[in-house]
């Protein structure tokens, strides 16, 4: 199909109404209404006009795998819907559709959509705005018609929902009407007697529409991409699940297995035992870990006392690393992931991390290994916050703690900028609370005698509370953003051997 990269218009219908109305149940009523409106507004079809139809499957973006079970012969996958992510994407979708010509009521769209009610939609391509408005006028009398809008194929959310997920229904070319389902062209032979009807099993639609956003993101596409990248992220647990599924299909699994993922805290539950770093991989005196420790010290300036810095580097890198060498034995699910780390001398290297998931247990680090030069590969370290000052540039006294505080704030802002608050829908209101829940966070430091705490006191940052020292993180009452800032702030403190914890406060 040509010209799909041109203007396409979307017509939305309340499919719940159709399913619950005995007159419309098990029918193609909304599609018939679109066909009739199309004929009434344009007696002659436009060449290269395409029609796509289906359900608005926004919930497909929000499915989380919560468990994978099976053996070499069978496998079952359980999923759930991330309702917070769904609310974020729904609001973004309504906002992006509202940026151009549209006739739907935002309130009705949001009220229908938030219940994860499927909305039926028809997309007509290669028609003018004037033509789309006439079709919309014809449909407005229908109680179950929600409204119309302009699609934006420069937005990956639109491209997926209103192109990838829809069925190719009708296409007109050279006085022919191509169709894949006779139910889609009821009465078309009387509407357009001069056209030849031809059944085709499958349309070969031009992929241009699907790929526009990859080369030319629109303004709305940039906003949607920010959400998709930061909220529909390829989490490490998801990668493990995909690796297990591949291994089953490739015949590499020969025993029973079970992977449980408890969202939304699965990623936070990844265990990196202190002793695996401090008493093994970074311990020069350890009979097996000694050679590794020498490499990390000589090449990355990471020593035994820097175990907490190494831990945070692994936590940063594990989400980018690919899951490899997966196998399952009597102890659990085992695999490795090669990840990039930044040394305390500013040198970047890829190292190998080994992991295990015991039955009903979290993901746990079992070892780390240096990699040869030929096994190194490029990693985008620029997308990570700096967690510590290079040892070569390390300062002393107040200057040292001031620099750590600066880095902590920088890291906090980095994580806060990636935070996308979950909108709160309140009954009786027309618009949700976009900033999410109201609250803030505290960073708690336990050692009142630490030099960093003294620096904070001298610079009037934070305050003493009982036997602890508190730094209040309040991003104007935006709870999720405050917590994200605090998490980034603590990463720097922990990397510099400053014991701390986050306390969250909802108002």
Automatic annotation (TrEMBL):
InterPro entries: DUF6883. It holds the Pfam family DUF6883. It comes from the Bacteria. Residues 264-371 form the DUF6883 domain. This is DUF6883 domain-containing protein.
